[in-house]
Amino acid sequence: MDASLLTIQPNAPEPIYRQIVEQLRRLIASGQLVTGDLLPSVRDVAGFHAINPMTVSRAYGLAENEGLLERLRGKGMAVAATQRAAHTQVQRLALLEPQLLELARHARELELPPDPVLRRLSKLLEE
After folding, report:
1. Each residue's pLDDT expressed in tens, for the chain with a length of 127 residues
2. Contact by Cβ (8 Å): 22, 9
3. How many other β-carbons are positioned within 10 Å of the β-carbon of residue 80?
4. Cα separation values, 83 from 35, 42, 87, 125, Å
5. Which residues have CB under 8 Å from 67's CB, separation 6+?
6. Rounded to an integer, what distance in angstroms lies between the CA atom of residue 71 and that of residue 50?
7. Mind listing the domains of the chain with CATH numbers?
C-alpha cells in the first residue's frame, strides 16, 4: 500500500484521523489490504497529504487498538493477522449503513425524489 491509496478531506466534518481509520477498515473489509500488508510510514502519509504526523500516528494507534493493525518490530505497521479474508458483500454494505441513512435523511430534508438521487449515486459509483 502507498500513501496515495488514502483520501483525506481536510474540510470534512469528520476528523482526519477518523477518516484514515474508516478507510483502513473499508480497505481491509474489501480485501484490498490483506493480512501482513505493510502500511506506509507515518512520515510518508503525513508528507503525501500535508497533514500533521501526530494525526496519522493517532489513526494508526486507534486502528491497532481495534485489532485492525499490528506493529511489526523494525518493519512498521501491517494489517493484523487476526483480520480474516475479505468480508461478504452484506458485511461490506453494513459498513456503509450510517452514511446511507444520512444520505436518505438529507434527500428527504431537501424533498428530493428517490429516482434522481439514485441516478446521481449510480453515476458517482461508476467514476
Report:
1. 888 889 999 999 999 999 999 999 989 888 889 999 999 999 999 999 999 999 999 999 999 998 999 999 989 999 998 755 556 777 778 878 888 888 998 998 989 999 999 999 999 998 8
2. no
3. 17
4. 6, 21, 10, 27
5. 80, 82, 83
6. 24
7. 3-79 (1.10.10.10), 89-125 (no CATH)
Name the residue among 45, 67, 65 with its Cα closest to residue 55.
45
91: which 3 cell numbers?
458485511
How does DSSP assign 76-110, residue by residue?
EEEE-TT--SPPPHHHHHHHHHHHHHHHHHHHHHT
Q: Do 59 and 14 form a contact (C-beta atoms < 8 A)? A: no
> Does residue 16 contact residue 10 with C-beta atoms inside 8 Å?
yes
pTM for the full model? 0.70
Cell of 18: 477518523
Q: Are 68 and 28 in contact (CB under 8 A)?
A: yes
**For the chain, what's the residue count?**
127
